[in-house]
Write a structure and sequence with these properties.
Helices cover 48% and strands 20% of the residues. With 84 residues, the chain is of the alpha+beta class. A hairpin with a 4-residue loop joins strand 2 and strand 3 (27-31). The protein is globular, with a radius of gyration of 12 Å.
Length: 84
Amino acid sequence: MALKFGADVSTAETDYGTVLLDERAGAYWELNPTGTLVVKTLMAGGDEADAVAAVADEFDIDPDRARRDVDALVQELRTSGLAE
């Protein structure tokens, strides 16, 4: 499922990943390169399977591990209210 950040979430890419600012709470979140790849894939219209494949390929990890990581990140972004 594609990912969309709320209107009150700002993003900025850095040399180390991506920083998210939750303007409602004034809280910053930092995504490492793996999280950045997941978010980019989902925001470009890919689904979670696409994100799993991208992570497994880019970082040469087991697809089951990639699936757990993608699921955990997406759940955290949605639970925190940053993403829909």
